[in-house]
Design a protein that fits this description.
Blueprint (H helix, E strand, L loop, with lengths): L2 H12 L4 E6 L5 E5 L9 H10 L3 E5 L2 E8 L4 E5 L3 H9 L6 E5 L15 E3 L3 H4 L9 E5 L4 H14 L3 E4 L3 H13 L4 H4 L15 H17 L11
Amino acid sequence: MDIATLQRLNSARAARQASVAVTDLATGRTQTFLEGEPLTSEWDAAISDALRSGRPTLSVVGERSLFINVHLPPPRIVVIGAVHISQALAQLAPVAGFDLSIIDPRTAFATGERFRGVELIADWPEDVLPGRPLDRYTALAALTHDPKIDDFPIRAALEGGCFYVGALGSRKTHAARMERLRLAGVAAEDIGRIRAPIGLDIGAASPAEIAVAILAEIVAALRNRELGWGGEAS
């Protein structure tokens, strides 16, 4: 791989931008595509499959054998609320390959004793997130039940294009949440992206079971996410 290609891939990684390197095995020529750029139409399906799996793959397109190497930003989960569900989720997320951080201004909950080895930020989300912007490879789980804490990061996640936005609460609670977001100017289409009640419907009851349901829903959203790639290459 030449220096120019490596520089493009490294720049994309630093910007948390997905990239793909496609090598024609017959010629040895490598082409790189950054997220948002147009793809070669005949390669679209093969590249899209690789992007969703996150794994390099060998694909035959027409009469050409292609090695597709995918470079995705490390997926991460931002949890709003240092609650019991968060404790379980903090243990499960690394097993599934996710970085995880927790934000909660309530210092009685956000303590190192309760969250050992976890990135824990005891501050208001509106003070934290401008310096740690949410992006397409971030999942947000809002778990406090408190609109003063949850609503801002939910809006930030929708604006940032997070691949998953979930919020704890009953249908009645979520209906009130949707109305607040509507009055705050959030588009109905964006509000419809919020997963609430949060987590897959597996009949979860305990905090640990709810954490499993949330993580499963996050994984499903990551693997079935809308890809941020441009139109067809000329």
